Fold:
Amino acid sequence: MKKIFLFIVFGLFGITLWSQSYRQKDSFYPFPELASRDSAQIYFKKLYFACREHNNEEARLLMSRIQKFQDTELRQVPKGIRLFTEAYYQLINNQLDVALKNYQDAQRYFEKKKRSRSAHWAQLGIANCYYYQSHYEKAERKYLSVLESLGPEQIQLQNNLTINLAILAQQSYDLDRNQKEHLERARRYFQRAIRGGKELGDTLMVCKGYNLLGTLLSIDEKENQSMAYLDTAESLALQAKLSDELAFIWCNRGYVAIEKKQYSKAIHYLQKAVDSFGVRQRYNMLSLAEMRLANAYEANGQTDQSLIHHKNYATALHLNFQKIAQDRIAFYETEFRTQELELKNEKQKQSKLALEKKSLRMKIFILGLASVLLVLILFFFYFIRLKNKRQELEQEQLKSNLNAELIEKSLEAMDQTRAEIGRNLHDGISQQVTGIKLGQERLLTKAQEQNSPLSEQIKQQVGYLDELYEEIRNVSHQLIPAGIEHHSLKELVRMSLVRFLKDYQVSLNDQQLNPEFLRKDNTRKYQLLCILQELAGNVVKHAWEANRINLSFYERGQELIMIFEDNGKSQSGELREGVGLRNIRYRTQLIGGKVSFENKQGFSCILHVPII
Structure:
């Protein structure tokens, strides 16, 4: 039971360390936007780290798997990242021309998508291609250009650029040992890369920096510092299990030992480097280690061993060139197969597109036909509805015309009746009253001559007859406006107000009423007087507690505005349009005007009459 418990504890501890190391490694990935766990994206990420650690065998296996992906899987990864990762693989396999083209395509893609950080990584790859093509000046200009454009947060990319610039400076110093400024520049760059690697926790970068700086200081004959840096680099490589970097450190230790004439020590380290590079089939590095080992044996006086390793050096070079050729053949075969598949897919797409177009045309035809039928149906129902609506309007207009004709006939009949009653009152009853009055006046004269006590009573009767005559005369004039042909509207309004509203306080504002307005238009003048009479009658009949009336006339443009107001209260409290108000509305229509009524703080009527 105790053993099982310990196994579980150590297992969990190991899983925790593995997950932490994976997360730390994942943080060095230059494309943080590729965060998905889809299979294609994971393979490209693994390929990047295999290339970064120069793990050619794993990189080759990953690349062969990626080449078998379908288009749907590849579309999960952005095109720029695919181009960048494939270019990195081609770079470490010395396919420099192809790598350079892919890096340039990746840069253009990132710049188009406005991803400047990723574009800087593509520019680093382009500069590395220039370096491996031996265009050192061109590579250095590119490194410096990218380094100057970086922000302070892009430490990982700065580390890669500074260590490459340090290697170029070291090469310049190797060519001319008198140019000490190259040595100082290389040291500064190496130290900067080491600081950046420590800041990021990038063990590979720190290890590589210590390795190259130690080698540089050995050239400058600073042996103690050189050995300390190389020891540190070897310790870090062993801890992090960086096999390729460890073999490179051994190769550099052997080189330093040869420079110090410590040939046995050199042979020991170089043999370890040869074995490591040979197992991992790093033929380019193996050729370098074999050449240095042959030089160590030759300097140590072991000619036979030197010859053997010179041959091994030649064999490694041959294998390296052969591997490069095989990789290029495989690459071009893959490209040919890819193009063949793309052509096949393109033909299938064209065929599918043609079918889709045909289907689309048929759908468009059916849809168009259905749309035409729908439009025709809608138009049919629209015309039917329009016809019905027109008939309804005609019926309403006919009804309105009939009502208007009825009202007009009614008003004509009423006006004729009023005129007839007025004439009867004026010509009949008025004359009879006048005759009676004359008889009473003669009786009054005789009674006064005889000093009869009845004279006062007769005199009183004569007064009553005068009042009756005046009342009859007023009523007849209300029914028939007197002198309508000979008086202006202004004069007729004044006479009507004095006669009809003598028991009310009347405020008349007719300064803007032109005396010539409607002077010759007796019909419209008559209708306006009838409207005024109707309004006056409305006050007498319906205005409760009314004692003040305001009547105003205003000219506004081509209109005469008449405002009639009283301060009375409606007995019902509401404005109800009876026969009188409806007659006012119709008479207003007859003269082409507009009218509105209100009953808020008293009754008011606003009439608009066009001036023509």
